[in-house]
């Protein structure tokens, strides 16, 4: 195996469920380098969990191949794949203690009896639970159970760590902390990992690579910044992050003309025709009266404030413009202009031509 | 919601109706008289003493207890794997198997007993231990399968999947993970099949012989010919025994829990 070859490779995976017209997973292919963390991101029913279960061997693909470290594992049953899986429900063994849960995996891997105890305890220490070794799962909080599940999966030193919505059962407050811990641990151990989530923030914050999935297909596989800043498809643009939708016709020279009469500059190289553009709220600048648009901000729109939503750090201004309803999000503390504005106030908004994400109209 | 007075009253009446036969038998079992009459002419423990000295009934009690224990073990060993297969595995004919295993429950035991006699007699198995075990298992196994199917189905599939990913073979995962978590069901099935065999009368009537007979059959015969309170003392002993078993299960794990109810 050469160093540059991917650690995990999916080739044209297909999976149908009986009775369903469309395949749950439709010819998915992707490569993941060693030590990287891949997020499978998508709405429910997009095939992300099915993909994860096929990698783990818990479901069989109808066609396609799964390679780990260059080895074809497609035909192997789960117990021969040597992958650590953290289930959404954690799936801790209720009749065993924390340390018993972790040691069970070591036993199944053929670790000598004398070694199991110390190694299981070390794994629990890794997740900060050394004091809870003798507790049964039902005596642990949700966050603690999650860590035991993680310790159990990591203790066998898996070729691949798979996490199925690992944070969804936790309180919102706990989630961020656990998210960062999982990421830190995965990076420290250098474990290649795949995790499934429907939460874009989770995916963007944790992953080296994000695969945005929809209807059984990967819409885009890229680094988080790339996914957010340069979505490859209309679906990615709307699913990841929020954006105002601007409908119109693309004309020669990349000018987007809206029904309301606005002519917006874009960077699009699409052929002339009906298009849909998306504009992220944090990209929109509010201009002071008489202020010239800063260099590079090719688009300026006259607008009327429709609604102002103040949430402390951020203030969202919803404005009616010739391009439709556009939302601008400003840092409430640093940018004071908005304080003067009331619903009905005239205002001017500016943004770059590259801020418009243009796709053919559906 | 607090039960209303009327509801409580109704519950009391219900219990009274349910328990009054047992209470009646309890009083008669301590009768000092010679006949099954109510009210008893006086109280004594003479019929319990007489029971302990009745070698026919005592030997039948021993036979029944051993038979019930053997039946419970066989029913668990046969019914457990069958229940696991029905609850967990996908295979053609699963529904047919489940139906076949519960079919004996639908047949009148009279039919079963007669059929067994017709089959076992030519084989020389009537009135033998194997014959009785077989006959009782026929009615005990469906109970074991039913309870244990529920018990296995109640263990989350993810637990087994987790065990597989950790390197456990399907057999190891079933034995080490699913079975221990279905243990309350297995114990309930064991107790219930024991009691099913212990109480079984109709099939036994066909299959017992002069040298091998069970307690319910002997009780039946005794009550046919004799009308002294000995039979009441025996009935009370059996009730106490059953209650003791339920209590034991309750102590071990909670009876309602063991029966699969939360």
UniProtKB/TrEMBL annotation, chain A:
The keyword Mitochondrion does not apply. The keyword RNA-binding does not apply. SMART domains: AAA (SM00382). It comes from the Bacteria. GO terms for molecular function: ATP binding. Residues 8-240 form the ABC transporter domain. Signal peptide: none annotated. InterPro entries: AAA+_ATPase, ABC_SmlMolc_Importer, ABC_transporter-like_ATP-bd, ABC_transporter-like_CS, Mo/tungstate-bd_C_term_dom, P-loop_NTPase, Transp-assoc_OB_typ2. Keywords: ATP-binding, Nucleotide-binding, Transport. PANTHER family: SPERMIDINE/PUTRESCINE IMPORT ATP-BINDING PROTEIN POTA (PTHR42781), SPERMIDINE_PUTRESCINE IMPORT ATP-BINDING PROTEIN POTA (PTHR42781:SF4). This is ABC transporter ATP-binding protein.
Automatic annotation (TrEMBL), chain B:
Residues 61-249 form the ABC transmembrane type-1 domain. Keywords: Cell inner membrane, Cell membrane, Membrane, Transmembrane, Transmembrane helix, Transport. Pfam families: BPD_transp_1 (PF00528). SUPFAM superfamilies: MetI-like (SSF161098). It is a multi-pass membrane protein. The chain crosses the membrane at residues 56-84, 96-120, 126-145, 186-209, 229-249. Belongs to the binding-protein-dependent transport system permease family. This is ABC transporter permease. It comes from Teichococcus aerophilus.
């Amino acid at each position: 195996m050469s160093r540059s070859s991917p650690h995990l490779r999916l080739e044209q995976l297909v999976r149908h469920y009986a009775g369903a017209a469309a395949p749950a997973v439709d010819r998915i292919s992707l490569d993941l380098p060693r030590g990287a963390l891949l997020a499978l991101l998508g709405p429910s029913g997009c095939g992300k969990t099915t993909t994860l279960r096929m990698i783990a061997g818990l479901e069989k693909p109808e066609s396609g191949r799964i390679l780990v470290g260059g080895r074809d594992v497609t035909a192997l049953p789960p117990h021969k794949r040597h992958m650590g899986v953290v289930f959404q429900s954690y799936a801790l063994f209720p009749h065993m203690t924390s340390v018993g849960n972790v040691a069970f995996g070591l036993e199944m891997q053929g670790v000598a009896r004398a070694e199991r105890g110390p190694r299981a305890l070390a794994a629990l220490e890794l997740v900060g639970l050394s004091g809870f070794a003798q507790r049964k799962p039902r005596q642990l909080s949700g966050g603690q159970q999650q860590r035991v599940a993680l310790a159990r999966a990591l203790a066998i030193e898996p070729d691949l760590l798979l996490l199925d919505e690992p944070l969804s059962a936790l309180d919102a407050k706990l989630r961020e902390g656990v998210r960062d811990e999982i990421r830190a641990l995965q990076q420290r151990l250098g474990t290649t990992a795949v995790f499934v989530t429907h939460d874009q923030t989770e995916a963007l914050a944790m992953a080296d690579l994000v695969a945005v999935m929809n209807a059984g297909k990967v819409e885009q596989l890229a680094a988080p910044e790339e996914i957010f800043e340069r979505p490859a498809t209309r679906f990615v643009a709307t699913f990841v992050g929020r954006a105002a939708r601007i409908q119109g016709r693309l004309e020669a020279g990349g000018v987007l003309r809206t029904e309301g009469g606005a002519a917006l500059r874009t960077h699009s190289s699409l052929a002339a025709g009906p298009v849909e553009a998306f504009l992220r709220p944090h990209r929109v600048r509010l201009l002071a009266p008489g202020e010239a648009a800063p260099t590079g901000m090719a688009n300026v729109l006259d607008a009327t404030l429709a609604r102002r939503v103040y949430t402390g750090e951020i203030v969202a201004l919803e404005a009616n413009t010739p391009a439709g309803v556009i939302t601008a999000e400003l840092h409430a503390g640093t940018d004071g202009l908005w304080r003067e504005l009331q619903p009905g106030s005239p205002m001017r908004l500016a943004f770059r031509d590259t801020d418009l994400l243009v796709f053919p109209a559906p | 919601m607090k039960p209303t007075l009327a509801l409580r009253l109704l519950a009391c009446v219900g219990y009274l109706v349910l328990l009054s036969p047992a209470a009646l038998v309890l009083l008669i079992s301590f009768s000092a008289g010679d006949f099954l009459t109510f009210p008893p002419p006086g109280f004594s423990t003479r019929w319990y003493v007489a029971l302990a000295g009745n070698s026919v009934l005592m030997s039948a009690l021993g036979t029944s207890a051993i038979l019930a224990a053997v039946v419970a073990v066989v029913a668990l060993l046969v019914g457990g794997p069958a229940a696991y297969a029905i609850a967990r595995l996908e295979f053609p004919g699963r529904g047919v198997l489940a139906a076949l295993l519960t079919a004996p429950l639908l047949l009148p035991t009279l039919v079963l007993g007669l059929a067994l006699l017709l089959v076992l007699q030519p084989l020389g198995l009537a009135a033998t231990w194997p014959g009785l075990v077989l006959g009782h298992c026929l009615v005990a196994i469906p109970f074991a399968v039913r309870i244990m199917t529920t018990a296995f189905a109640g263990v989350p599939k993810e637990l087994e999947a987790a065990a597989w990913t950790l390197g456990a073979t399907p057999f190891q995962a079933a034995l080490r993970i699913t079975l221990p978590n279905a243990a309350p069901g297995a114990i309930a099935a064991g107790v219930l099949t024991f009691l099913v065999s212990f109480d079984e009368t109709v099939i036994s009537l066909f299959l017992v012989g002069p040298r091998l007979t069970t307690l319910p059959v002997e009780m039946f015969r005794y009550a046919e010919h004799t009308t002294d309170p000995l039979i009441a003392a025996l009935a009370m002993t059996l009730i106490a025994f059953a209650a003791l078993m339920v209590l034991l299960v309750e102590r071990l794990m909670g009876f309602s829990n063991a029966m699969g109810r939360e």
